[in-house]
């Protein structure tokens, strides 16, 4: 099978050194294996995505010497695929509508009998307020957030699940347990009210649609990968190999974020830095 990697930025701010590291690593992996490199614009959050950031992404990646296949996948055009997957999950009986606001969830998890609120990859672990004890039989609601009933999802899957973590010449199998999914992750949102999908669902479906064999992304997404493996299993999709790379930090040790404009590639370009400078700063 041809190796295929991707870079999947959200056009919600400038690409910074951390993005350059991720994109160059993925591109280098594809090139070394004579494989494919794909780009995906993760613009499901239409309130934050901007065409000018998307244009800047293309410009910065080309400047870094990266070439990608066309057409570029854009998540904002993929709602029919997301809807089809949500219908499938709804029919499997593993989704339920959630009526809670953030404040409701914070209040429920702060109740004294609950002990210390537990945090999962998506923030507070959902206390289960809207969870029903029987699978819904009605048609899937389109205008409500839908949560994954993690206990039911886990009960339907063949364990053990896991994924291969590969990088720097080593490979290791990372097992995932039903217990850690139920206690440490809980009922995550798979369709948000405002977008009809979620990061987790879209990423899983798009990696499969783009036939991605190797996902290269930062260690900050390691916990999300366990969720992705579960969603892949529920939708009968293959699990790619993952490489969660080290994070690029500023001189105080803080992970770079979109707001760190000082490390924006565009700014460094305008200040006269070369691609070699960037490579040497990020240790490539
Ligand atoms: N769109 C995500 C980001 O910009 C990356 C998602 C991924 O690589 O899976 O952080």
UniProtKB/TrEMBL annotation:
InterPro entries: aa-tRNA-synth_I_CS (IPR001412), Glu/Gln-tRNA-synth (IPR000924), Glu/Gln-tRNA-synth_Ib_cat-dom (IPR020058), GluQ/Sye (IPR049940), Rossmann-like_a/b/a_fold (IPR014729)
MF term (GO), any: glutamate-tRNA ligase activity
Stored Gene3D superfamilies: HUPs
Domain Glutamyl/glutaminyl-tRNA synthetase class Ib catalytic: 3-106, 184-267
Coiled coil (residue ranges): none
Entry's Gene Ontology cellular component terms: cytosol
One of the GO biological process terms: glutamyl-tRNA aminoacylation
UniProt keyword Metal-binding, yes or no: yes
A Pfam family it matches: tRNA-synt_1c
Keywords: Aminoacyl-tRNA synthetase, ATP-binding, Ligase, Metal-binding, Nucleotide-binding, Protein biosynthesis, Zinc
Family from the record: Belongs to the class-I aminoacyl-tRNA synthetase family.
PANTHER family: GLUTAMATE--TRNA LIGASE, GLUTAMYL-Q TRNA(ASP) SYNTHETASE
Name listed for the protein in its UniProt record: Glutamyl-Q tRNA(Asp) synthetase
